[in-house]
Design goal:
The chain has 14 helices and twelve strands. The chain has 324 residues and is α/β, with parallel strands linked by helices. The protein has two domains: 7-223 and 305-322, Aldolase class I (TIM Barrel, Alpha-Beta Barrel); 227-287, no CATH class. An eight-stranded parallel beta sheet has the order 1-10-9-8-7-6-5-2. Helix 7 (172-182) links the parallel strand 8 (153-157) and strand 9. The longest helix is centred in the N-terminal third of the chain and has 16 residues, at 89-104.
Length: 324
């Protein structure tokens, strides 16, 4: 395949139609820059950057700015930043700080996760930004709405993904053609369970013009995830995954086994989710390696991940068809 005429590459300014998902906690300047240097789009995710410096709690905008500045010291290639959108005032305030920090560091690609929000869209467009829109539970209707309001790229996510799972029933290779058929003029990227070239080829066969990948990058040398987590993924299988809430899965850590038992016994998923978040969400296990306290969220296709490699090697493997 050629990338010269690929709309995702044209919009993002990248060599390859590949976005590294903004993985919560296990994301930093080194990994993002490595992805972008390899020709894909590295994206800075939530909870990246220093929260404490010399005993001082670093404000949100400054923290994001510090990490973006570190990225800019490592690469001049296009990079993106995560924005969450749910119409809540606190979320909007965080988004505005993120947009300001991004603009100050020459970053203009925003990977928006959540629902369309007029105020956030307007702020991004006024900053000259590009919007990659990923609905938590994508539907043809929400994709059309995002397109109508200025989204530049739409991401179709299936329940195969890691992180917060869509509430619907569509797998990635059901969601992709449905969203492709729904939009008129913007490219669609596929997300969820794509870990090797076979998944990339399948996504393109169904009409996607790019892929949005998270879990595969956890097992990169540059990812700050705990070594125990990388080892669990390499040795793991999708059939081991346990539901810990209605929208979250985990490899079988001691904490996940207990959450799953409680969920199956009828404890409300909302209460379990609150407990997971109160203990630090994905931070304890995935960043710090405390599997007794935390969960390890990955996509359902981890059986195809059997090695830890540099980011550049992972990008080259996923994009092998574009290297001709």
């Amino acid at each position: 395949m050629e990338t010269r005429n690929n709309p995702v590459c044209r919009i993002l300014g990248t060599r390859y139609p590949l976005i590294q998902a903004p993985m919560n906690w296990i994301n930093n300047a080194a990994m993002v820059a490595a992805v972008s240097e390899a020709g894909a789009l590295g994206v800075l995710g939530p909870n990246a950057g220093p929260k404490i410096i010399d005993g001082r709690k670093v404000p949100t905008q400054e923290r994001i700015g510090i990490e973006l500045s570190r990225i800019r010291n490592l690469t001049s290639k296009p990079v993106g930043i995560n924005i969450f959108s749910d119409h809540e005032d606190a979320t909007r305030a965080y988004a505005m700080k993120t947009i300001a920090a991004a603009k100050a560091n020459d970053v203009n690609i925003y990977c928006l996760v959540g629902t369309y929000d007029e105020l956030i869209y307007k702020a991004i467009k006024e900053a000259g930004g590009i919007i990659v829109h990923r609905e938590l539970t994508p539907t043809p209707q929400s994709a059309r709405e995002a397109e109508e309001h200025g989204a530049d790229i739409i991401v179709a996510t299936g329940i195969d993904e890691g992180g917060m799972i869509p509430s619907g029933c569509m797998g990635t290779f059901t969601a992709v053609p449905a969203i492709v058929d729904a939009v008129k003029s913007v490219p669609v990227m596929a997300a969820g369970g794509i870990n090797d070239i076979r998944g990339v080829r399948a996504a393109f066969a169904l009409g996607a013009q790019g892929v949005y990948v998270g879990t595969r990058f956890i097992t990169s040398d540059e990812c700050p995830a705990a070594q125990v987590v990388k080892d669990m993924i390499v040795a793991g299988s999708g059939d081991e995954l346990l539901a810990v809430t209605t929208n979250e899965r985990s490899l079988p850590t001691p904490a996940a086994i207990d959450y799953h038992r409680r969920l199956m016994a009828g404890e409300p998923a909302e209460e379990i989710h609150k407990e997971i978040m109160a203990k630090g969400g994905l931070g304890p296990a995935m960043l710090h390696g405390d599997v007794n306290t935390g969960i390890v969220s990955v996509n359902t296709g981890i059986s195809s991940i059997r090695s830890i490699k540099p980011v550049a090697a992972i990008v080259a493997e996923l994009m092998a068809d574009f290297n001709g």
